[in-house]
Amino acid sequence: MTVSPDPAFLWFNGQIVPWEQATLHATHTIWSSIQTVFEGVRAYWNAEEETMHIFRLEEHLRRLKQSMRLVRMDSPYDPMALVTDLPLLLQRNGVREDTYIRIVAFPSERRMASRGDEEVLNMLADTAPYPSYLDRDRCLHLMISSYTRISEMVMPPRVKSMSNYRNGDLAMREAKLAGYDGAILLNRLGEISECTWSNLFIVRDGALITPDHTSDILEGITRDVLLGLARERLGIPVQERRLARTELYLADEAFQCGTAAEILPIGSIDRYTLGDGGIGPITRQLRDLFRAIVYGRDEATSDWLLSVHVPGHIPALLGVS
Ligand code: PMP
């Protein structure tokens, strides 16, 4: 039997409440995933400092607001309130391990959720243990999917929404059935877009290359961080541009990146081995720097973290509304 990962408390419609109290009627949830937008955020546990470091929270909250705007969702709750409330939630749950924080905005209505102004909007944030992969060298074997990435002509790829996830989900199922670890999706023009639920980088002749913002990608926060680190901290030339399928097969290195994925090295694509099939030197260099940053061991980027002390013995009085 597995231990339930449900936290003792979560944030629901503006308040930290016991997990059992965040309820809706089942008949009010059926249509809600059509409209649901969300964010996944990671928080890392630094045991020496007894501190949880929430990574790039404000960027995630800004993207949530952007997703809400693009799907025309009005909210009585300001996601920015979570800058204050999430640290309290982590303390309240006594979280002392690497963790995934979900932040979800969704309507609840008995009727189909496309009427806009009649919907009842809910916002929820919860936490679940989620170990980091940053120490794992195992490389992924990916295929180019037969599904193409959604385009602006279908539904906006820039939105992080549950509906959009069906696209990556089908690609992932196809890849797993074919014996791969995951998939890369082409866009409507047959160029590279991204991986299932993560962005893609390749290294070719010393340059770090990733599809640009018009390649139907989700504008990944990790992608943006890595571009900046490569350019400004590691002196690696970067290119954001349209990327052709066969450039992948000729790459020296490649990796997936995202909040959940972090940095996952790719060993082969469509059974073309990349480099020597193991994690490449530039991928490793970026991953080492990224690991130092997320655990709060890089002074220059300490303002990328929202840090909260979670002592072993929690003081009795912590602000719970
Ligand atoms: N693309 C998709 C479709 C995703 O769901 C994600 C995960 N949020 C990413 C890319 C990577 O984005 P981020 O680095 O902001 O997590």
Q: Can you walk through the features of this model?
A:
The chain is an alpha+beta fold and 321 residues long. It has two domains: 9-132 and 301-309, 2-Layer Sandwich (D-amino Acid Aminotransferase, Chain A, domain 1), CATH 3.30.470; 140-278, D-amino Acid Aminotransferase, subunit A, domain 2 (D-amino Acid Aminotransferase, Chain A, domain 2, Alpha-Beta Barrel), CATH 3.20.10.10. The chain is 24% helix and 30% strand. It has helices spanning 32-35, 57-70, 82-92, 162-177, 221-233, 245-249, 281-294; strands at residues 9-12, 15-18, 37-46, 51-55, 99-108, 120-129, 140-148, 182-186, 192-195, 199-204, 207-210, 238-240, 253-258, 262-269, 272-273, 305-309. Strands 7, 8, 9, 10, 11, 12, 13, 14 and 15 form a nine-stranded mixed β-sheet that branches. The longest helix is centred in the middle third of the chain and has 16 residues, at 162-177. The model has no long low-confidence stretch (mean pLDDT 94). It binds 4'-deoxy-4'-aminopyridoxal-5'-phosphate. Residues 40, 160, 168, 194, 197-199, 218, 220-223, 258-259 line the site of 4'-deoxy-4'-aminopyridoxal-5'-phosphate.
